[in-house]
Amino acid sequence: MWPWEHLAFGYLLYSAWTHVAWRRSPRGAEALVLALATQFPDLVDKPLSWGLGLFPQGYAIGHSVLFAVPAAAVVAAVALRHDRPDVGVAFAAGYVSHLAADVLSPALKGQGLGFERVLWPFVTFEGYESDVGFAGRFTLYVGRYLHEVTQPEYLPFLLLYLGMLLAVVGLWVLDGAPGIRSLLGVLRSRSPDV
């Protein structure tokens, strides 16, 4: 899945959770932590595989439930210690949503569920046919994606896909666009005084 797909899926689940469990929309810090957590497994595994060659594929320690559960527990404990359990829940939700999406996504292509993607080190993948480095691997995937979405037979799927992404953006806007003010505050606090 692409980063924006992980983000949309994670936000949809987390927004539903906050509305049902806490009767409110997600808040700024939660939304930022959620956004980071939905990318976390790829931020760990892709550089370790594509850039450093430590793993044969981009599904390894960051995607492993054996790493995800303790990592989410540690973040939740730290968040609780700082009296921000909502942030800990947001991290866990984002991380778990990424893993769930990676398990579910092969089924969308008729390939069944991809549980093997989250079972490292018990399941490992064969290495790539060629070692093209991080930039090369990224360029390869983007090129393949752009080729697919520009094919005429792909148009109905593309329209449905864009509609679903826009629906999640609409939900985020209805929730008050959480995270924007927090992000702007962080950026302002880090900019040098002129």
TrEMBL record:
Q: Name one Pfam family in it.
A: YdjM
Q: Which InterPro entries match?
A: YdjM-like (IPR007404)
- Recite the UniProt keywords alphabetically: Hydrolase, Membrane, Plasmid, Transmembrane, Transmembrane helix
Q: Where does the sequence pass through the membrane?
A: 59-80, 154-174
**GO MF annotation terms:** hydrolase activity
- Give the protein name, as stated in the record: Metal-dependent hydrolase
Organism annotation: Halorarum halophilum
Species lineage: Archaea, Methanobacteriati, Methanobacteriota, Stenosarchaea group, Halobacteria
